[in-house]
Specification:
Length: about 160
C-alpha cells in the first residue's frame, strides 16, 4: 500500500512508482514534462510559469498574450503593446491587469523567462545568446529575472533540467 499526504507528495509518489516500474530515465522524462523535480529537495521553488491563464473576456487580449509568448524578443514595452491594441498606454495597462490579473510588464517577464527556460533545457547556447533571443537583453537581466521568477540562476536551472546532448 502506498499513500501520500497531499498533491505534491502524491506527485512525488507517482514519479517514484514510474521510476520503480520503468526506470529513472523515464521518470525523469515524465518529471520534465510535468515541470517537476524527479526527487524534490526541501524548500525548492516550483519552476512552472503559468503563462496560459484563463481566457480573458476580450479575445484581443488572448491573441496579444499568445503573440507575446511567441515573440519574446520583440519590442514588448507597454507603449508598443498599447499601440498593437490601439489603446492608450494607461488604458491598456488597466484593461490588461483587469482581464489577466497581471501587469503587462509582469506577463512579459514571465513569457521571456519561460522562453529562456526552454532554451536552457534544450540547447547549449551561451547565456548571452539566450538572454538576447528571449528579449532579456543581458546576462545580468536574465539572472535577475530567473532569481525573481524561479529562485535560481540560469546556469543552475540548465544543470538540473538539461535535456539535449
Amino acid at each position: 500500500m502506498w499513500t501520500g499526504a497531499g498533491i505534491s507528495a502524491c506527485m512525488d509518489l507517482a514519479l517514484a512508482l514510474v521510476a520503480e516500474d520503468h526506470g529513472e530515465r523515464l521518470a525523469l522524462a515524465v518529471a520534465r514534462q510535468l515541470v517537476m523535480y524527479l526527487k524534490r529537495q526541501g524548500g525548492q521553488s516550483q519552476f512552472s510559469v503559468p503563462l496560459w491563464q484563463a481566457p480573458a473576456e476580450r479575445r484581443d487580449l488572448d491573441e496579444l498574450r499568445a503573440w507575446i509568448t511567441a515573440n519574446p524578443s520583440a519590442d514588448l514595452s507597454a507603449a508598443a503593446l498599447a499601440d498593437r491594441m490601439c489603446l492608450s498606454e494607461r488604458h491598456f495597462a488597466r484593461v490588461f491587469r483587469r482581464e489577466t490579473g497581471a501587469t503587462p510588464a509582469a506577463f512579459v517577464e514571465a513569457a521571456r523567462v519561460e522562453a529562456a527556460r526552454r532554451l536552457l533545457e534544450g540547447t547549449d547556447e551561451p547565456l548571452d545568446r539566450v538572454a538576447g533571443a528571449c528579449g532579456l537583453g543581458s546576462v545580468e537581466t536574465l539572472h535577475r529575472a530567473f532569481r525573481r521568477r524561479l529562485g535560481t540562476t540560469p546556469a543552475a536551472y540548465r544543470r538540473r533540467f538539461r535535456t539535449a546532448a
